[in-house]
Design goal:
Order of helices and strands: EHEEEHHHHEHEHHEHHHHEHHHHHHHHHH
Distance between the termini: 63 Å
Number of helices: 22
Length: 437
């Protein structure tokens, strides 16, 4: 195993492009800025499989988001998996869903391919990661391959996760250069699913203007910055000094080698780096304290990890069912049980935090729980940016403090992420009508 030390000026996406260029095969173990571990399985420079620790990217949650599985059907699948586990026979989620007749094998295969892509894109939400490279041919052969190019993953990640600050960091040292689209650039882009607006940006890219001057007059400077940053990280954007263009002299600048993460060069250095421990993420929350206090009143979590995860999901689904009926005390107990079985699951923490708000009386106790829910929502949103419930909770928190405009934005975003989230849709409509009066 070799630990990779990221250069302060480099982006994780650049490391992946370097591995794609060298057609690397192996497993990249990463821990992102949010503390989530993700393992990328690479074969000849392509991502073929991804393992990630967040609940939001599990197959069951993905099938629900895609409308292929209802909440009730999801609960039935979890129950079937638990029954099989009790009989000492393990059953995967996809197998159980097919066995129950809820989805077809083809739908599961398509969903698994989508899951790999989304997990890979989610991993790129962090610019800087703790990273270890591991050669493990047996592990690569053991997984089902769902190949996707690193360029596809980075392009989608740039659109979804790259902030303006992160984009500027990629471009800051060449902002005064003139980007030139070459045949190599066009060949590279020909195999990628560019949006119509991105095609137009490429077609209209001038050869005689610096990035800064183009960004100042661009109709959509953020879209242009995303495209330029993506091409620069991929190493296919030629950059010409504007001072030398008139003389016909082109100074070409590709992604600098110094921007690439450095890898220990000697076996001794590699062994020392690999032996260093990555500090575990600190998760001190009020809900965790509540769970600790509740341990004496409830059964301890199962020691078997598989059993603990299934029991957590069963408790979580009970909590969601209770919350839909406004039975908040029962919901809180169920969410606490789920979090007790899986203390690192931010989704369980968030649902429990909001249930705690709903069980509190008015006054200082409720205000404190609202603050705790806001913290839990921020943590959940950072780890799982597409979690609609996190935005829903933030919308309710905004309502609690009288900020209807902020609440409306949050409810709209929750409804955008999950159009079937009826409470978020309803509250967004109510606030919109109220603010129009």
């Amino acid at each position: 195993m070799i630990s990779v030390v990221m250069d302060p000026g480099a982006d994780f996406a650049e490391l992946l492009f370097g591995l794609a260029e060298s057609r690397h095969s192996g497993i990249i173990e990463t821990i992102g800025e949010d503390g989530v571990r993700t393992d990328l399985f690479l074969r000849r420079g392509e991502v073929i499989f991804v393992e990630q620790g967040t609940l939001g990217e599990t197959l069951g949650r993905l099938l629900q988001r895609e409308g292929l599985l209802s909440q009730d059907e999801y609960a039935q699948v979890i129950n079937r998996m638990t029954e099989k586990l009790i009989d000492t026979e393990q059953l995967r989620f996809g197998e159980a869903a097919v066995e129950l007749g809820f989805v077809s094998g083809a739908q599961i295969h398509k969903a698994l391919a989508l899951q790999v892509r989304r997990k890979a894109v989610r991993c790129l939400a962090s610019a800087q990661v703790e990273c270890t490279l591991r050669d493990d041919p047996e592990a690569l052969d053991a997984v089902t391959a769902f190949p996707i190019s690193i360029a596809h993953c980075v392009l989608e990640a740039v659109r979804l996760h790259f902030t303006e600050q992160r984009l500027s960091h990629v471009l800051f040292d060449v902002a005064d250069q003139c980007p030139v689209v070459t045949r190599e650039t066009r060949d590279f882009l020909s195999g990628l699913p560019l949006l119509p607006a991105e095609h137009r940006l490429i077609a209209k890219l001038p050869r005689d203007r610096s990035m800064l001057s183009m960004l100042r007059v661009a109709k959509d400077p953020l879209a242009l910055k995303r495209l330029l940053a993506f091409l620069r990280m991929a190493g296919v954007l030629e950059l010409v000094s504007p001072t030398n263009q008139s003389a016909g002299e082109q100074v070409v600048t590709r992604v600098s080698v110094k921007r690439r993460p450095s890898v220990p060069a000697t076996p001794a250095a590699a062994a020392t780096a690999a032996a260093s421990e990555v500090p575990a993420p600190q998760r001190a929350s009020s809900l965790a304290a509540q769970i600790s206090r509740a341990v004496g009143r409830s059964a301890p979590p199962p020691k078997n990890e598989k059993r603990a995860r299934l029991e957590a999901e069963q408790a979580f689904e009970r909590g969601r069912a209770h919350s839909k009926k406004a039975k908040w005390d029962s919901a809180l107990d169920a969410f606490r049980r789920a979090a007790l079985c899986m203390p690192d699951a931010v989704e369980y923490e968030l649902y429990g935090a909001w249930a705690a708000v709903m069980t509190a009386e008015d006054g200082e106790a409720r205000k404190e729980r609202v603050r705790e829910a806001a913290i839990a929502a921020r943590r959940a949103r950072k780890q799982e940016p597409e979690m609609a419930y996190a935005y829903y909770v933030e919308g309710n928190v905004a309502l609690e403090v009288g900020r209807e405009d902020a609440a409306l934005r949050r409810f709209r975003h929750a409804a955008k992420l999950d159009p079937d989230f009826t409470d978020a849709v309803r509250l967004a409509r109510i606030l919109q009508r109220r603010m129009e009066k």
